[in-house]
Amino acid sequence: MNQDFFQEFDENPWFKDAGVYARTVMTAESLPHILDEAIRRAFAQHGPAFVTIPNDLANKEIPADGYYSAAANFAKPVLGPGPDEQIKQALDLISNAKKPLIYVGQGTIGAADEVMKFAKKFQVPVITTALGKEIIPYDFEALLGSAARVASKPANEALQETDLMLFVGSNYPFAEIMFKPDVKFIQIDSNPQVLGKRHKTDVAILADAKKSLQRFIELGSDSAPSDWYAANVDNVANWHQYNDDMMNRTDGELRFEPAFKEINRISEDDAIYSIDVGDVTQNAVRLLKVNGKQPWITSGLFATMGVGLPGAIAGKLSYPNRQVFNLAGDGAAAMVMQDLSTEVAYHLPIINVVFSNDALGFIEDEQEDEDHEWFGISLPQTDFAKAAEAQGMTGITVTKVDQMKAAFDKAVELNKAGKPVLIDVKITNERPIPVEKLTLDPDKYDQQTIDAFKKRYYADNLIPLSEFLKRHNVK
Amino acid sequence: MNQDFFQEFDENPWFKDAGVYARTVMTAESLPHILDEAIRRAFAQHGPAFVTIPNDLANKEIPADGYYSAAANFAKPVLGPGPDEQIKQALDLISNAKKPLIYVGQGTIGAADEVMKFAKKFQVPVITTALGKEIIPYDFEALLGSAARVASKPANEALQETDLMLFVGSNYPFAEIMFKPDVKFIQIDSNPQVLGKRHKTDVAILADAKKSLQRFIELGSDSAPSDWYAANVDNVANWHQYNDDMMNRTDGELRFEPAFKEINRISEDDAIYSIDVGDVTQNAVRLLKVNGKQPWITSGLFATMGVGLPGAIAGKLSYPNRQVFNLAGDGAAAMVMQDLSTEVAYHLPIINVVFSNDALGFIEDEQEDEDHEWFGISLPQTDFAKAAEAQGMTGITVTKVDQMKAAFDKAVELNKAGKPVLIDVKITNERPIPVEKLTLDPDKYDQQTIDAFKKRYYADNLIPLSEFLKRHNVK
Amino acid sequence: MNQDFFQEFDENPWFKDAGVYARTVMTAESLPHILDEAIRRAFAQHGPAFVTIPNDLANKEIPADGYYSAAANFAKPVLGPGPDEQIKQALDLISNAKKPLIYVGQGTIGAADEVMKFAKKFQVPVITTALGKEIIPYDFEALLGSAARVASKPANEALQETDLMLFVGSNYPFAEIMFKPDVKFIQIDSNPQVLGKRHKTDVAILADAKKSLQRFIELGSDSAPSDWYAANVDNVANWHQYNDDMMNRTDGELRFEPAFKEINRISEDDAIYSIDVGDVTQNAVRLLKVNGKQPWITSGLFATMGVGLPGAIAGKLSYPNRQVFNLAGDGAAAMVMQDLSTEVAYHLPIINVVFSNDALGFIEDEQEDEDHEWFGISLPQTDFAKAAEAQGMTGITVTKVDQMKAAFDKAVELNKAGKPVLIDVKITNERPIPVEKLTLDPDKYDQQTIDAFKKRYYADNLIPLSEFLKRHNVK
Amino acid sequence: MNQDFFQEFDENPWFKDAGVYARTVMTAESLPHILDEAIRRAFAQHGPAFVTIPNDLANKEIPADGYYSAAANFAKPVLGPGPDEQIKQALDLISNAKKPLIYVGQGTIGAADEVMKFAKKFQVPVITTALGKEIIPYDFEALLGSAARVASKPANEALQETDLMLFVGSNYPFAEIMFKPDVKFIQIDSNPQVLGKRHKTDVAILADAKKSLQRFIELGSDSAPSDWYAANVDNVANWHQYNDDMMNRTDGELRFEPAFKEINRISEDDAIYSIDVGDVTQNAVRLLKVNGKQPWITSGLFATMGVGLPGAIAGKLSYPNRQVFNLAGDGAAAMVMQDLSTEVAYHLPIINVVFSNDALGFIEDEQEDEDHEWFGISLPQTDFAKAAEAQGMTGITVTKVDQMKAAFDKAVELNKAGKPVLIDVKITNERPIPVEKLTLDPDKYDQQTIDAFKKRYYADNLIPLSEFLKRHNVK
After folding, report:
1. Is C390–D380 a contact, with Cβ atoms under 8 angstroms apart?
2. Where is each Thiamine pyrophosphate enzyme TPP-binding domain found (chains A, B, C, D) (predicted)?
3. Does C372 touch chain D (CB under 8 A)?
């Protein structure tokens, strides 16, 4: 195709705005340089680079002795721990706080030990972002989970009480809604552009999170056991009990929790979880009992539905020897179901789990909360097991609790034989408990309202943080 | 969600570049004006307008007494026939031409009678763009079809012979490749921006195509019967015979042609054809025996695969009482197969035909022609009938000619009962005849090469235009 | 410079958004096609097209036998008068209206006779957009001028009274502010995208303005003499008298009006006025006594200061034999004063008039009206005559009324000798009368307020429209 | 102005592409956050951020207790010296090199001592980018100057001989043209995106330049005195002599060099040089005898003419107590001469020097070299002294060498009195010596060609590097 014709079409502007680099190669000679630039920028800016290679160039020869090979040399800048002066200033603030929290994001990947050591030493409970789910082991006593709606009860409750936040390696976008404006605020980040972005800071430390937390631990003295910390530990235990009870339920219509029990049961020590967007994100963030070695992938910023399947494929291609899960609701699964073919064609033994409630549950709940007209939330029934079979993959349908174990055992067996599998779990459309609007505290709600809430969400044994604070004499 | 947060996200730049209008509504009060503007521009510029309405506005009231309601007044500008002086100048050129052609595009929709009358009166054979397939009835004696690769043999042959082109209502982008630079060139278009864009013009008439052709007919005298015209008519008849023979074949492995025979058979008088991209586009442009009243939709400019299914849905929603076909290859069908659900959920009785050869045939052929390495053209086998069943639609698989009639009869029956259906036709991956590289003319190729071509493409009875020109003494 | 390097720099995105076409030529072969495309689009879309030609191509040969030459064929589409049915519907509305107006924009350039004939026949006073200043002769009895702030008193007053508007060939952007929502509204435009854009329409006619007005005149009967029309004619005469009085003033500090008296005096029959942005736009729109043959150029949409000088250069280059004025305030003149050189270098005898009040008066007045802090409105004193001399142009400074005539006579003399000239008129910073907030009507304001207004603006003899309506018994 | 109207205008797309941030404030409440974000990004990305504040907001109150104040906390990330392992690897390469060079860019600002210590210790001559002119004192014996055209003779000659380059803190865009592909290449940069971008690297060190050079010095042993180094030192001395001779010339027509002699003479120890674009950039880069404490500003990437005056204003506003020069050619000076007013209005005592040759000399020389038609390079004569006077600034014209000293003494005197001044130096249009096409080496050119070159450029005593290499027995 001649160039005149080619010039009729502009480069896709989306590339330019969505990625860190976008270029159409015009001559074969410039191809190596452009590819090199694209790789370098993708590495440095941690984002997608787009290079368009016109078909015309498919036959052209390029000299082998490249002038450019920067990708081979790429190095990631690492900062130090930050100045002692700032760290001491921060330690002072922490020691004067009554209800401190540490809030960690993806910048603390690889620093779980430091976070947990910090939490115990200074008696500071831990919140992670939803995207940081994988960082801290589920069973750490003071892990409150994440905040807002894709979230856990203890985290939301603690955020309403806290008087100091240590915000580490995070760019959490809902800070204006979830964080109180008047708390003391200490921030550690390696990106100067993010320091102070979400909240006015009392101390802002430009540093590597892991090194900085280490230095906090070196420079600070052990705090005495704190009632605030203890109350939060109790609150976590109560919340975990609630979730365990739900996962162990065998009566009533089938809900999503028993499937998570099975997923936890069969999960290998270094399993990779690719989580789609919707109720499943919320449920996975609460119920997966991760151990700190299990990557957890989802679409955190744009909440793009359909991300579970490609994420799982990427996981399996990158780590062929690790167990990979794709967990998706039926809305998202339907958007990408034709790519089950890809798993079959490339022999990618992935465990695909679809939660089918014939609805876009997460959106339905938003509409309920905001009194919108219900709009666009019902889904046609789909037989995902059959859709898998149409593409050459074994499909299993589960409609009752007692079919669950056999289905997941079968999935493990097929995976071991090198085959992907899909389990379609047909669940009720009952709403998961909304931790962002807990209705448990008798100081805030009348008993009738509380009872209705408990009944709807099977929450008879769920206790508000306020109660634990009272028990521990925290004011 | 507060506005600060909202401002973190820019408008999708793709909207701005892809459409004729893109705006995010910021206040409820401005919604009516912005919607009105969007509608007006979409009409006037004949393209998509994008309005983003933030969820925040879902509850807001808007005064009912709108200030704007321009959509109700929209009118489409229509030009006149162009100046007589130019038309006479053009008629002179035509009467002096030995081998004139008229090449018509979408600007002649609604002007089929004028085109055919013109063709006969001035003895000028007709080419249409592929997108203009629907305009002129298949059985018009001098309809050569379309040019290039998604094309017909007579059109490509005539373009190499012609000495004058009347180019009407078209913006055909491959003109530089397909049109000879030195032919006389007369152009009629209602868009001043397109006059002369594709070829230097001898006469360029800014006019409404239909009115202008009428005026040509009024002002010009009848031409004497022309050997050039007669030779082309014979060539068309020979090409039609070749295609009929292929559609009637019952031996050998199953090819796509017998399915088109059935489609022609069951097509209603005002059927709508939504055609996907790939070999199916080429095959449909050659084999569908349209009558001038049957819309033919595809993705002509960007050749976007997967367009068949949404096109059919749009067709059925717009014209609920007309028969609608979705014809797609397996590559394209796989891209959008999860939307068969939509046909079921909205009770849209569409006839979906998938041609499965487990390959991206059109690209495979390009790679064959340009000596590329074969790359990315094989497809995993999919049982599309089962995929349809998974979504609640009847699916039928056809693997032999003798199953064909029953399958299409069943489709008609289901449609009449208000139900969509999918027929998966399992075909060989033999290449359709490449009319852009015909190897038939003994003046250009040796007999062995010609024989190999004829054998590969079942073309024993196919005769080159050169032979017809000789028979009619055209030099 | 090699292409790799070149690719480091993207095309200027501003080009893409600001113009109708933007392309960087990559090969010499594609240059003719791209230039042809650029010209065609610039003509068709009536806007700037940008072609970037890399320096690398400066030495390359291009074959002379161009394939493209569309510019030569360009034709502008012209519509008809619109359907009689719509015109009759509109005539009915007009004949039933009590206080009709016709509001004409640039789409009526060339149709002054039709507009004036229409106005008299149907007894409808005329408003023009500010950009349409040149269309209708100043001395037409029913020409109310333009509306809003760069405007005339009679137009603003009539808009508050009217019950029907005929809106012709205009896309006036302040319609929402200046037009009443409930008037009957008839629109004529050749651009379907503009019909209804500014106001809900009762009749929307897609048509050529001139042809359509002719048809109105043919189809409609003469209206009886109307009191509404007569009152407006009187109002215009009173307003003209006020302006004449101001232009004839000889006492007090020097104001801008006496300079306009001189400009009117020396203006040739086909003079071209290039008007800069600021108070000068407002003053020129009120005071220039144009005759319908004198083009009037300014920056109407973005109000770009500094536009007067380049506009005058463009005017003189396009029409070397016509008299050209550049009228600018000192703020705008300072922005582009280095281009006086260009007038000298290219021997362009232009009359440059600068009005110096050491302030950005137009903005100052906005800040006064909206109670802003005064900000960024004072200017350093500049000796523009000396600045002209520095660049080889004769500069004249006028500080008193009695120097005015000689200065302008000298300007004419220099121009006749082929030389440009600059006259720097040093004026007071008194505010021009704000017709958008007239304080004259005793039904609306107390006498003290009216008196203060009259005193400040020398408006003792200025009479509100309400008074003329009373005199003519219009209710 | 209501929002509907406002929405008619899109944000200026240029802002979005040219800056690091672009946002229109939509509500008064969001103003503090958006300003904070803009400041933070401007700091972090070292570029302009654009915030558009609609006039509507000018009266709105904003709560004083801001949530955001990130600008106060901004910190710049600083890396370490890089790994010892890499530094040792680099030291090995350097000790094995015969003709090493160190090439330093703006990343070494503040590291002049380290660069000079490195140069002497390892016997490595130094090249700076043109933008790095200010870093190393002019009189450092082994400072070769900068490369290419805005450049010095010794740097260009050394680049053709070198076998190893240490490339530090630079993103020099002409590397592909000026650097040999096969030299050993060591790079130090703090930006991972730049490592390897301009040349394949043998060692690529992600590090802070200053710290890394210190570590080189600590880890490496002293090199023995090197003939290569000595030859380059001699070459620098010869080049300096040539420039001194030119600056001291008193006969012939006035050239630019004597003015630079005066500028050097009156320059204070911490003077700031704002240099415009054109021949003046080239001349300043060669002739200003900077001492390492004198900032040197120009437009290095886009070579934007007219940058000298605003640069000087910025310099004076930022450092009111330092001497500031604006050095510009007449082409550039004419583009911005109306802003001399600004220096007067804000009492900014700047020394403006204009070099007037009535031509765009730099472009003229490019056209000479590339055999283009001469196009667009002549300028109208302007009396810049008078133009300054028109704006209230003292202007001085110099046409002879013997007026020079008095003019610059007067400038100093006026500056001391708090007043800006402009000196217009009227010079010949003789071409400055083209160091990128030296014609001196008898091994490469015949004597006649050499003689013509020497005559044209007064270069009788200029000696090629090849001669010094011979004298020092370097092969």
Report:
1. no
2. 276-425
3. yes
Mean per-residue pLDDT of chain D: 92
Q: Does A424 contact chain D (CB < 8 Å)?
A: no
Task: Tell me the three-class secondary structure of chain A, residue by residue.
Answer: CCHHHHHCCCCCHHHHHHCCEEEECCCHHHHHHHHHHHHHHHHHHCCCEEEECCHHHHHCCCCCCCCCCHHHHCCCCCCCCCCHHHHHHHHHHHHHCCCEEEEECHHHCCCHHHHHHHHHHHCCCEEECHHHCCCCCCCCCCECCCCCCCCCHHHHHHHHHCCEEEEECCCCCCHHHHCCCCCEEEEEECCCCCCCCCCCCCEEEECCHHHHHHHHHHHCCCCCCCHHHHHHHHHHHHHHHHHHHHHHCCCCCCCCHHHHHHHHHHCCCCCEEEECCCHHHHHHHHHCCCCCCCCEECCCCCCCCCCHHHHHHHHHHHCCCCCEEEEEEHHHHHHHHHHHHHHHHCCCCCEEEEEECCECHHHHHHHHHCCCCCCCCECCCCCHHHHHHHCCCEEEEECCHHHHHHHHHHHHHHHHCCCCEEEEEECCCCCCCCHHHCCCCCCCCCHHHHHHHHHHCCCCCCCCHHHHHHHCCCC
* Chain C interface test: which of A1, A2, A4, A16 (most C C-beta within 10 Å): A4
Round to whole Å and give the CA distance between B317 and B386: 25
Residue B200 near chain C (CB below 8 Å):
yes
Least confident of A253-267, C194-208, C409-423: C194-208
User: In chain D, which residue's Cα lies nearest the Cα of B10?
Assistant: D23
Q: C232 or A193, which is more confident?
A: C232
Interface contact D192-A77, CB threshold 8 A: yes
> With an 8 Å Cβ cutoff, is A37 touching chain D?
yes
On the 0-12 / 13-18 / 19+ scale of CB atoms within 10 A, D48 is middle
Of B13, B176, B386, the CB nearest to A4: B176
Confirm whether B3-73 and B84-224 share one CATH topology. Answer: yes
Amino acid at the residue C346 = Y
Angstrom CA distances, A62 to A24, A30, A33, A65, C89, stand at: 17, 9, 11, 9, 72
The predicted-structure confidence for B73-120, as pLDDT tens digits, reads as follows 788 899 999 999 999 999 999 999 999 999 999 999 999 999 999 999
The CATH number assigned to the domain with range D254-426 reads 3.40.50.970
Residues D384-399: pLDDT tens digits?
999 999 999 999 999 9
CB atoms within 10 A of CB B260: 24
CATH of domain D3-73: 3.40.50.970
Which residue, A174, A172, A198, is CA-closest to A185? A198
Domain C84-230, classified CATH 3.40.50.1220, yes or no: yes
Percent of chain C with pLDDT over 90: 76
pLDDT given for residue B176 in this prediction: 75
C348: its two tokens: 């362009």
Q: Domain map of chain C by residue range?
A: 3-73, 84-230, 254-426
Distance from CA of B2 to the nearest CA of A (A): 9
In angstroms, the separation between the Cα of residue B346 and the nearest Cα of chain A is 10
> Predicted ipTM?
0.91
Region B1-28: mean pLDDT is 57
B310 interfaces chain A, CB cutoff of 8 Å = no
Q: Is D380 at the interface with chain C, CB within 8 A? A: yes
Give the DSSP letter of residue D130: G
Query: Scanning the structure block, which residue is given the tokens 């420079």?
Result: A219
Q: What is the pLDDT of residue D176?
A: 75
C47 touches chain B (CB under 8 A): no
What CATH superfamily is the domain A84-235? Answer: TPP-binding domain (3.40.50.1220)
